[in-house]
Amino acid sequence: MNPREFEKLPLNKKGEIVFPNGEYINAIKHDKFDVMLYRVATNFYEVWYNPKSQLVHDIAPANHERLHLYSKVDLTGLLKAT
Length: 82
Fold this sequence. Notes:
Mean pLDDT: 89
Shape: globular
Order of helices and strands: HHEEEEH
Distance between the termini: 45 Å
Strand content: 35-45%
């Protein structure tokens, strides 16, 4: 399923695809949300979860330009010129 088709699905159907088939990668904080990154096959999805309300507000294809935010490795020290 391509990202456009996925976006058109209702939230519960998105969850039925991502949660049983996805591999949890990592999570970041964004405002009041925990944004969890999942990989399903070759696609990445962000799950927007509000821990206060304990509700998933959205599941959306991840913007590939944001994937570095989920990195568990701090590369800043390696990027400095020596």
